[in-house]
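Researcher: Please translate sequence to structure tokens.
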Amino acid sequence: MESVKSTESTDGDWDLSINHWRSRTIWILIFSFYNASAGYRIGAGWKIYKYCLSNTNFYVDFLWSIFFLSVMVEWTMQTTAYFDQKQPWRNEFLKRFFIQIIFIYLPTIFYLECMDRLYLQITDRALFRIPQNILQLPFSMGISLIYTLFYSLASLYREYMAGIGEVEILINDEKQGKIAAIKQNNLQDNPVITIRDGKDIRLMDLDIVLICNNNGMNTIYERNPANPPIQDSHALKYLVERLDTKEYYQITRWELVHRSVIKGYEVNGDKNFRLQLDFPLEQQLVINKDKIDDFAKWLLDENDG
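Model: Translation complete:
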């Protein structure tokens, strides 16, 4: 039999035969030779040539066997492929099983029996009715069963492999979707702040010590004072949500500071508190007296740890 694998033709993916015509032809020749030679009394010593190959009737039977079996195989193959589209195995296995019997197995037996009867009337020789002392069952029944089973298994195997392929595609699509979602989330959590030397500089790429917001525009200061402040249009709340709250504290609605540059704080005349920073900044950062306890707790918690 030909190897079992999924093949496709230019007319669609339902043709099981397109790449297997050589092996199919070889097996038809083998079965035809057996059918044409069976029944000859070759005697002791297997005198095949004397009693079989030298007989003209053998070659006539051989050629007609090739023709009739080729028609049977083509019907079996194409009908199986047709029902692969109309009634796949996975939809209703038992229904498809009975379809294989009713539309393939039984018709091929009937076809071979009719051809055998016609051949008998013309040549006075039975073509597919091998003598019962050699084969108890009609050859037509056996060969039909072999090909029906083979193409049914080939169809079932191909559908199984196609199902695995579909599952793999779904799994890969799901993975790609998750990866894309993760990347998208990562991009949202790490937005682009500026561009340097033609490259995107993201929030987490910067060593930020201070952010001041004025009229909706952020001024971002890096630890290295030599780097000029960066102007950014994101909402300050958007940046605050993406920075580590253990390292950054929003002292007012407009300022965010990193703990590493805080030296301390002192009381102003209005009883608010002015931060002392280890960073060259012209403006003063003031904490409201109502917020100083929370700020002190945040600052001391880390220092105690």
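Researcher: Any highlights?
Model: The two ends are 76 Å apart (CA to CA).
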